[in-house]
Amino acid sequence: MMKSVKTKTPYLSIGIAIVLVGGFFGLQIPLKQKYDGIMNEATAATQFVAHPIDAEALSFLESVRGSWTVHSSESPDSIFAEISSVTGIQSTVGGVVEFHTHKTLPYSFFDFGRNAKESLVATVTVIASPSSIDGRVYHADGTCFVKLAENVVEVFEDSENGLVRTLYVKAKSGEKSN
């Protein structure tokens, strides 16, 4: 009789382990589905690619700075400072590039802290990321810009006072530019 209890004990332990592991993963399925939904929204909202400022982009940026109207300029940029405080991404040009090109990591069944941080960044990305006409964030040392529309460009620059954001607007034909 004692022998049959000993032979059943390993099976009982294995059965309990299987139930516990199944329960662990089973409880995470709804979390993973919600995470994947947020990740898909963030991916759809931000299809930015980092693009170094080459000669053509530099010429375009010089033209914008030289002949377009400054619609608004803020130093330090309060919007990105808020994004930075929520996500932990630095409030610098490098941080702007990182934010616009961030690819959400796949769900981890074992790293809940990473899942929480990635969900937060993805949610903020969906809310705060602008549209771009060419899907690029152009960048070089201390400067980056995004073409929001044919006649609107957002430029970020690092400065001693923090991140500066300037929004340039091209005057319509027949209108006078400042």
In short:
The protein is of the alpha+beta class. The chain is built from 5 helices and 6 strands; from the N terminus they run αβαβαααββββ. It has one domain (2-169).
Mean pLDDT: 85
- What low-confidence regions span 5 or more consecutive residues with pLDDT below 50? none
Beta-sheet strand percentage?
15-25%
Number of helices: 5
Based on Cα principal axes, name the global outline: elongated
Order of helices and strands: HEHEHHHEEEE
The domain count comes to: 1
Major sheet: arrangement of strands: 1-3-4-5-6-2
Rg for CA atoms: 25 Å
Helix-residue proportion? 40-55%
- The overall strand count is 6
Structural class: alpha+beta
Provide the descriptors you would attach to this structure in a database record.
5 helices; alpha+beta; six-stranded mixed beta sheet; elongated; 178 residues
Q: Can you characterise this structure?
A:
This protein starts with a helix and ends in a 9-residue tail after the last strand. The protein has one domain (2-169). The chain has 5 helices and 6 strands; from the N terminus they run H-E-H-E-H-H-H-E-E-E-E. The mean pLDDT is 85. The radius of gyration is 25 Å and the shape is elongated. Strand 4 and strand 5 form a beta hairpin. Helix 1 (2-45) packs parallel to helix 5. It has 178 residues and is α+β, with helices and mostly antiparallel strands. Helix content is 52%, strand content 21%. A 6-stranded mixed β-sheet has the order 1-3-4-5-6-2, sandwiched between helices.
